[in-house]
Amino acid sequence: MTHQTQGTPDLGPADEPHPPARAPRPSATRWRLIICLGVVAAALGWVTVRGLSGSLVYYLTPTDVANHQADVGQLVRLGGYVVPGSVGHAGSTLTFTITDGARTMSVVSTGAVPELFRAGQGVVLEGAMAADGRFHSDTLLIKHNGDYRPPDSGQPPPGSAELVSGG
């Protein structure tokens, strides 16, 4: 038999009140949010750096190569300007000399030659130095300023075909 005191109902084990559930402390919630935002920011930063590093074009100049910043056989990008009068074709091989204003370097290119290639043009080459002292390239890229000038009034765009009616 249970003994009841005046004014208190008899509560059985199932009817006992439970203490209210405590909400997380505001400082704990704030720290979790800060940590999550930090992880997201670090991930975005990593993705940005990895994405940009692949698209940036770094290259050495003939002076850099002369100062032993590239070893024989090491794949590098070489940049400079094509020396006028130095361009020669031998079958599918293109030979020319590039300069950075201080030094010159002979180049042997076996890759495709862009239409804009000409003497005095800035180029970036991908390839390696050979034991013969020449730079052997399989990729030739043209550096240009990207300015577009429309043709004069009444003139066809350069490289466009003349269309003749068949009737």
Q: In words, what does this structure look like?
A:
With 167 residues, the protein is α+β, with helices and mostly antiparallel strands. The protein is built from two helices and six strands. A five-stranded mixed barrel has the order 1-3-4-6-5. It has helices at 26-55, 62-66; strands at 75-82, 88-90, 93-99, 104-109, 122-129, 135-143. A hairpin with a 2-residue loop joins strand 2 and strand 3 (93-99). It has a domain at 62-143: Beta Barrel (OB fold (Dihydrolipoamide Acetyltransferase, E2P)), CATH 2.40.50.
Query: How many angstroms separate the termini?
Result: 118 Å
The fraction of residues in strands falls at 15-25%
Report the structural category.
alpha+beta
CATH class bucket of the domain at 62-143: Mainly Beta
By CATH, the architecture of the domain at 62-143 is named Beta Barrel
- Note the run of SSEs as H and E: HHEEEEEE
> Could you tell me the radius of gyration in angstroms?
36 Å
Counting DSSP E segments of at least 2 residues, the number of strands comes to: 6
Major beta-sheet overview: 5 strands, mixed, barrel
Global geometry? elongated
| Uncertain regions spanning at least 5 consecutive residues | none
Helix percentage range: 10-25%
Query: Which whole number gives the mean pLDDT?
Result: 79
Name the CATH homologous superfamily of the domain at 62-143: Nucleic acid-binding proteins
**What is the CATH fold-level name of the domain at 62-143?**
OB fold (Dihydrolipoamide Acetyltransferase, E2P)
Instruction: State the strand order across the main sheet.
Output: 1-3-4-6-5
Count of helical regions: 2
